[in-house]
Predict the 3D structure of the following.
Amino acid sequence: MPVPEASAHKAHEAAPATATTAQSLKTPHHVPLVEVTRDGLVESIHYGSLIALRKSGNTTIEAGEPNSPMYPRSSLKPLQAVALLKAGLDIPQNLLALTAASHSGAQMHRDGAAEILKLHGLTEAALGNSTDLPYGVAEREEWLRAGNGPTQIAQNCSGKHASMTAVCVINGWPVEGYLHPEHPLQVLVRDTITELTGEEAAAVSTDGCGTPLFAHSLHGMARAYGRLAAADESTDEGKVAHAMRRFPEMVAGEGRDVTALMRAVPGLLAKDGFEGLQLVGLPDGTGFAVKISDGGDRARMPVTVEVLRRLGVDGGSLDTLQSPPVLGGGLPVGELRAAHIFSN
């Protein structure tokens, strides 16, 4: 199948993307999204921006500046997975879900990444991602008790990187240097993200795992997730969404809120990202994106649950997803709650 070309001499380089901007990345005007209370007093406030779009493109809920560019971090993974399918990736659904994952580093995740490599005649030596301990707390503790240290397979992006190297083998592209922004793989990824979001990247940097990282708006990312969630299963977008929904434990892990969210709401597509990102797509084509400005992970779920309820998602199915209570002396004395600032 035809794919974008890149200059051959750069395809072998392993240099990371450098920060470049197409426009000034000013600080967005974020607004209060989540309040932390203790015995009725608001103790802390998490600011941010959000937007929910219907399939028609009409905005139903927004707050802050959802059109400002930001780095979507790991919420880009499902979009990157679509690009890999376009380039010929053909793996079982559980491994496709792992390709779009920020996994906890459980045995099933590590084995899955190794299987992707083995299916394409590769070993862990082909991976270009950073080394790390398992992301999940329980998984990390078990890993350390066994005497293990940081590895590339245990790092939460290893499924994506294994599939990226696999696509290089499939297309005869050099595996070495596959993270360079001008490698044909990354050119295809960039173009696919542009197509799905409907906007050009405002800036390019390097993500924590080493892949090129493209800045887009919450508006564009919500549009992309709505497209994935509503896509027919015969399409590349639909294949990624269906795999993630069928194997939510591969997308994150046991005890992770993203896995719990997809289990709680049939047909819902969800992916988080470092620095306070949460993306959601619904089967009717609605897309939702939130960015917590201080990167606070604890603030993602309270605002996500509130927006889903306002979108008409069954409230009963979401009750178990509320954030843990604020404790005092081991007893609940407060809560994290959505601030009442959303415009309709």
